[in-house]
Amino acid sequence: MAYNMLTQTLRLARRWIPPIVGLVLLIVLFVRSDTQTVFDLLWNADKVLLSVAVLLSIANLTLGVFRWKTLLRHLNVNVSTITLLRFVTEAIAINLFIPSGLAGEFARAFNLHKNHSDGGAAYSSVITDKLLGLIAFLLLAIAAIAFEWSRLENSGVVLPISIVGFILITGTAVLYSRRLSALLDKALAVVPQLSRIWTPLSVSLQKFREAPFLICYTLFMAFAAHFAQILCTWVIGLSLGIEIGLMPYFLYVPIIALVAALPISNSGLGVRESSFVFLLALVGVSAESALALSLIFTCLALIIPGTVGLALLALGPSLKADPPAN
């Protein structure tokens, strides 16, 4: 009885604490800012520059889809770009409502497996794609911290980035290690249900390990996507009259992305906006301007594609899927 109550309490906590944290952070930001100024900035933003930001946001999303498609081709899985784009937008929609960001990634792997490929290829491609994106952000964030050490040393940013980096590097080393993979193969052989899941996943992961040129190429694509995202943020800032140059965005956007990746709130909502306000204050940007920038950024990166994903989820099987490629 007590165990069941504890389990139920933990489930409720996992479900409700992240959205509550995000909501509280957003409320605090608005309370500490001049709300009217924020709304005025949003209303008077340069529409032409915002149109450019929209195009850059689309470029970021599209580059991510092509990166995933490149990984799938290495596993002899051919799926149309439109179908993969649908899976990605649906994943963004799911992550808006479920914390940790893993549910959306699981959903796009599941959809791929269900309609187009074996489980090993589907899940290994999503895992590798996600890790490459995070590793690219980690490398940019490390460079930013080194470049801005005097400002960031006591800012509280270094610790969460270090935690994310440690988890990311350790997890990557474990997943792609031949030796550990062989040990797990032997250990799970006594549990056929788990072995059936792990073995094809391990085989596909090792195929990526054995293709260093592919990994370098897709990592370059991840950097290109992040560059588009950084340019998008800079253009949003220009549309709001924030003139601090491009360099601060190169330094701070990767840090913000990694902090927002922590499973604190749904899709980093509240955490991302707080990080924008905190870090841009280091270069003299007002809280109102930084908050307005972060709201537009979140809208372009999450809310709009997430809304498209929700619409596609609602349509469900009424949209004809590609025939299985394999």
Verbal overview:
This protein has helices at residues 2-32, 35-43, 47-74, 81-97, 102-115, 119-147, 149-152, 158-175, 178-188, 192-209, 212-239, 247-261, 271-281, 287-315. α3 (47-74) packs antiparallel against α11 and α4 packs antiparallel against α5 (102-115). It is an all-alpha fold. It has one domain (44-264, 298-316). The mean pLDDT is 85. The chain is globular and about 60 Å long.
What layout of secondary structure does this protein have?
Blueprint: H1 2-32, H2 35-43, H3 47-74, H4 81-97, H5 102-115, H6 119-147, H7 149-152, H8 158-175, H9 178-188, H10 192-209, H11 212-239, H12 247-261, H13 271-281, H14 287-315
What form results from the Cα inertia axes? globular
Q: What is the makeup of the main sheet?
A: none
Number of continuous helical runs:
14
What value does the Rg take, in angstroms?
Answer: 21 Å
Helix content bin: over 70%
Low-confidence stretches: none
Instruction: Please state the average pLDDT score.
Output: 85
End-to-end separation in angstroms reads: 48 Å
Short description:
This protein has 326 residues and is mainly alpha-helical.
Describe this protein with a few key phrases.
mainly alpha
